[in-house]
Each structure stands twice: as structure tokens, then as C-alpha cells.
Amino acid sequence: MGVPLYQAKAEFFKTLGHPARIRILELLSERDHAVHELLEKIAIEPSNLSQQLAVLRRTSLVVSHRHGGEVIYSVSVPEVRDLLVAARQILTGLINIAPDTEARPGEGPGTAVKARAAAR
Amino acid sequence: MGVPLYQAKAEFFKTLGHPARIRILELLSERDHAVHELLEKIAIEPSNLSQQLAVLRRTSLVVSHRHGGEVIYSVSVPEVRDLLVAARQILTGLINIAPDTEARPGEGPGTAVKARAAAR
DNA sequence: ACATGAGTTGCAGAGTTCTTCAAGTTGTGT
DNA sequence: ACACAACTTGAAGAACTCTGCAACTCATGT
Fold it and tell me: What whole-number distance in Å separates Cα of residue A92 and Cα of residue B62?
């Protein structure tokens, strides 16, 4: 066997580890979008969007096809949606648990996740 | 709530985007482990392991406590396990869809994703 | 043929993350 | 008190990712 599964998993999560890419997947799991439509809803440079789409294409999470002047993107694996939902649940759970300090449930309400995210 | 959820999600996935950290979470979701036990099962430098554990601690995905001479780690959010399972399913699904398919039916399926992972 | 809108690609500088080394802490046994 | 095992921390260089710019392709309208 060539590559350990845990390594493939890490690669996969890395692909999801970018705000724009999350945004794209969320939008695409509602419905297909042309690039210029994504552009309206996500505030980044066209070339940047294109780069992020390329990342998602490389991992086959999305596929694209031309339709006249536009390029339409769709998710190729519908289960991605479930994954995003699962993530959101863990995340909201974490926010009420995260003691920024140390291992001690019952301690002050954590802001570790919030704070870190806010810091960027 | 100052932080867009999609950004927190990206942060969260970034945390999962490392082979050692995936490995750690997999082991910990079976049962609690002392650091030296993790060390036996994951082949990395002690200090590196410690760094990765620190990353997981910071996001509150795991918690630690001392027990005599050892430090015991446990997952603090059991749902993480579901997430890892979901990822594995998407991943195995992807392997049969991936683009540059030098896949040979009969043997370990598609290598597009795997190969990419191997290339790092 | 030309101009224009829609996307993509290559690239370089800025910014992050990874890994390892050396040094430090904490608890146990002698 | 000392040595030793079990961990953690800080720091630094290598490796990688991100972003925006300029240049390019491709299809449509004039």
C-alpha cells in the first residue's frame, strides 16, 4: 500500500483549511455556481478565487465545465456537505468547552477558538 | 460574534491538516494515551510530538492531565471520531473519481489522491 | 477583425507552519 | 540529594502556502 490513510486524510483536511475554500464549498453545496457568481459572494480577487478553485479541483472535490462564456463549478462529492455540518457542530461544542488554559472541565468558558479565529 | 463561522471552520480544519495530528486523534479516540505510548505508535521525535499535542490542546480538541510521572491525553470532543470516519468515506469515494486515473481495477484503487499525498 | 467580459496561469514577496536542537521542568526511585 | 525518565518549551532555518500583479486564453458581441 502506497500511502498511509492518515496521510491522505491530513492532505484532505489541509484542502479544507482555508476560509475561501470553505466558503466556496458551502456555496456550491447549495447549488452550482459560475465563477463570477462566486466572485460576487466571496470578496476576493479573481485570480485568488481561481487559485483556490484550482486547489479544490486538484483534489477532485469540485469539477468545472464551460457553458458558453462562463465556467460552472459543482461539488463532485455531496457528502462534503455533511462534513461541513459535522464540523460546525464540533465547533459550536468547542466554544463552550475550550479553556484556553489547561485540562480542567468546569473551568472558565473558553474563548480559545473564538479568540484565535478573531485574531486573524 | 465577531468571527465569521467559515473562518473558524477553516482554522479547525487546518488543525486537522497534519498527519501526526490525525494519527494522535485516531489513537486517542480509541482510548486515552500517555505521551510515551503515543510515541511508540507514531514515529516522530518527542519534541515534535509535544508540539503537535500543543496544537491540539490550543484548539481544545484534546486535554491532558498528569498521572504520576506520565501525562495522559484524551479527546475532549467525542464527535471528532465521526468526523474522521466521514473523512475516510469521502476519501475512499474520491479515489474512484480522481482525475489522472492510472487506477488499475483489481489492485488498490486509484492513486491520484494517494500519489499526491505521497509526493510531499 | 477587434474589443470586451470571464477565467486561468506564472510568479515573486510576504507570511505561516514544520522539524529539530538545546535547554528546562516535574515526578520517581535510590 | 542525585540521577533518570517523561515531557515541554523556545528558537531558528527549511519548507510550504497565500496573495496580488501582469500576462494569457477563450468565447461572444459588434
Answer: 16
- Domain shared by A24 and A68, yes or no: yes
Strand C contact with B31 (CB < 7 A): no
Q: What is the pLDDT of residue B97?
A: 75
Nucleotides of C under 7 A from a protein CB: 5-11, 16-23, 26-28
Q: Which of A95, A115, A114, A97 is nearest to A106 (CA)?
A: A97
For residue B99, the enclosing domain spans 80-118
Residue B87 CA to residue A61 CA, distance in Å, equals 12
Residue pair B72/B32 in contact by the 8 Å Cβ criterion: yes
**Domains held by chain A: number:** 2
Same domain, B39 and B71: yes
Separation CA A82–CA A60 (nearest Å)? 17
| Residues A62 and A46 grouped into a single domain | yes
Reported ipTM = 0.86
Q: For residues B67 and B106, state if they share a domain.
A: no
pLDDT value for A95: 78
Whether chain B has a CB inside 8 Å of the CB on A74: the answer is no
Residue B27: CB partners within 8 Å, gap ≥ 6?
B33, B38, B41, B42
**pLDDT tens digits for range A61-106:** 999 999 999 999 999 999 999 999 999 999 998 877 765 433 334 3
Give the mutation candidate from B94, B96, B120 for the A interface (greatest A CB count, under 10 A).
B94
